[in-house]
Amino acid sequence: MKLRHLPLRLGAGAYILNSGLDKLGADEDTAKGLHGTAAGAYPFLSGVDPKTFTTALAATEVGLGAALLVPVLPRVAVATGFTAFSAALVGMYLRTPALHRGPGDPRPNPDGIGVAKDVIMLGAASSYLIDTLTSSAKKAGVQAAKKARKAVHR
After folding, report:
1. Closest by alpha carbon to 123, among 89, 76, 74, 72?
2. Measured between alpha carbons, how far is 154 from 116 in angstroms, rounded to an integer?
3. Is residue 134 within 8 Å of residue 147, measured between CB atoms?
4. Which of 5, 3, 37 is nearest to 114 (CA)?
5. What pTM, to 2 d.p., does this model score?
6. Which of 33, 41, 91, 105 has the fewest CB atoms inside 10 Å of its own CB, making it the most exposed?
7. Which of 139, 124, 142 is nearest to 68 (CA)?
8. Helix (H, G, I), strand (E, B), or coil: what is residue 153?
9. From residue 23, how far is each of 44, 55, 66, 126, 150 by CA, in Å?
10. Exposed (0-12), middle (13-18) or buried (19+): which is 77, by Cβ within 10 Å?
């Protein structure tokens, strides 16, 4: 793990892990509310049982939070999962008009502030993914150049 990734991974990982742990014990009303918001944005989820959806969401958040906190999985996989999860949250926000100030205005109303912060998380996740991909590509290029030099000198 790169030192420059540590603050992002610790902050986001702890936040996402806590969110998932809170959802593990969600009651029926909470599950219905979470499911209703998600299904409103992503209609394919409407056929999923609210409790099943909430448990799956909680497991996803716990897994992603832990992956960010414990550097055992490949960075590219963690960064990709983090970015995809954040993008799905931003998509939900953008597709939920009740969270906006008015028609055609994407800015959050008071109810949308808590979800709109996911835009920041998507920016951070995307930056992490880009840095990880460009670092991996650079490392692969350096290794290929070393192999090529060795081959030429043989």
Report:
1. 89
2. 58
3. no
4. 37
5. 0.85
6. 105
7. 124
8. coil
9. 21, 7, 15, 25, 55
10. exposed
